[in-house]
Amino acid sequence: MAVIIEKDKCIGCSICRSNCSFDSIEMVESIAVINHGTCTQCGLCIGDCPVQAIYKEQVEKHENCDNLSQYSGVMVFAEQRQGVIQNISFELLGEGRLLADKLGEELSAILIGTDIFGKVEDLFKYGADKVYLVEGVGFENYRTEPYCYAMEKIINEYKPEIVLIGATNIGRDLGPRIAGRVVTGLTADCIELGIDEDTKLLLQTRPAFGGNIMATILCPEHRPQMATIRPGVFKKNDPDSSKKGVLVRVHMSISDINVRTEVLETIKQGKIIDIQDAEIIVSGGRGVGSADNFNIIKNAAKELGGIFGASRAAVDAGWIDSNYQVGQTGKTVAPKIYIACGISGAIQHQAGISKSDIIIAINKNPNAAIFDIADYGICGDLFKILPILVEELNKVKN
Ligand code: FAD
């Protein structure tokens, strides 16, 4: 959908060049020329041109633009690793259930793996009405080609209206490739989803422009509407053992697929503590001051039976490993108690903690933004307050 300037019509007034916010237009021999490498196709120049010499190229419509009504239901990619269904899959089923109920449609899950049939029941328990199961040798470990092939085939055949994928390493590889193959849009790293009352379109909200605003993105003309969602954003429902569903076995063989990669060996990293599953997180920011000082945060987390976290400033300073970073470019967490110490509460940090049940903030600046979202705010020096807070919380716990 490139923006085109008709050379014959251009009068060389250069209004478009002056108004282009991206410096993507230059004058060559008194004719405006677009640099397609930097043009964002925002289309502002189209309205600016006094002689209508600029237009947006129309792309041929893909078949899934014309038959939107054929698409129905919410479909979740059920991610498994070594035969274990990942928490994100249950979180997506919880949210998918809400969306499907709002639309009055079905919630399904795609499960791909080897000897994985035993896990289908879990997907029903967590809300799926239907499970599409691709099971066979060669599907045990995630590999791009077979998983993309399977997903594309199922989406094209069963035509879901919405597809949700976890924004995990696997989902971030899979999601855009599938969207490209089925010719639709994808909103990556959503932190909120909803259904528009009037249009029934999926409202896909994610941080934009460096996290300074939340943008709600729509995909009105293509299907399915696809989104990746970060782990920890949605809470999983309690499993309901009485819930049953329909199993659809989708037959495909790895030999049908041109697979160029082979998994030779899987080496497990040492135990990585996943702060996304923690019920109590004590996090430290730049206000902690140094790597040595961070021990106060680590000890507090240990004493409360929780895990420590950090702001990006603390990670960038090299005090803490990036696995513990909370926020837009770190982890999204949803603990029962989140204690933010010496963290100012930038919007990018808030994006990762807003689903916490209780936020306690300790900051010596009474105007710190963290106090705007904290349930309990304590203004003062974290080195004095945190030990007292831990002692008091432990009294309540015990
Ligand atoms: P500061 O903003 O410097 O705040 C330090 C706070 O400590 C201050 O409020 C100060 O009053 C307080 N303080 C100082 N001493 C004490 C004391 N003794 N006792 C109590 N309080 C004290 N940030 C994240 O955290 N996570 C992300 O994922 C993330 N992603 C980003 C993505 C993008 C695209 C961008 C542009 C930024 C991102 N950031 C992220 C960075 C973010 O904008 C902030 O710069 C960062 O969160 C600031 O970290 P901080 O609150 O620890 O430090």
TrEMBL record:
Keywords: Electron transport, FAD, Flavoprotein, Iron, Iron-sulfur, Metal-binding, Transport. It holds the Pfam family ETF_alpha. Binds 1 FAD per dimer. GO terms for biological process: fatty acid beta-oxidation using acyl-CoA dehydrogenase. Residues 1-30, 32-59 form the 4Fe-4S ferredoxin-type domain. Coiled coil: none annotated. FAD binds at residues 286, 311-312, 325-329, 342-349, 363. SMART domains: ETF. The keyword Cytoplasm does not apply. The keyword Iron applies. Transmembrane segments: none annotated. PROSITE patterns: 4FE4S_FER_1, 4FE4S_FER_2, ETF_ALPHA. Belongs to the ETF alpha-subunit/FixB family. This is Electron transfer flavoprotein subunit alpha. It comes from Alkalibaculum sporogenes.
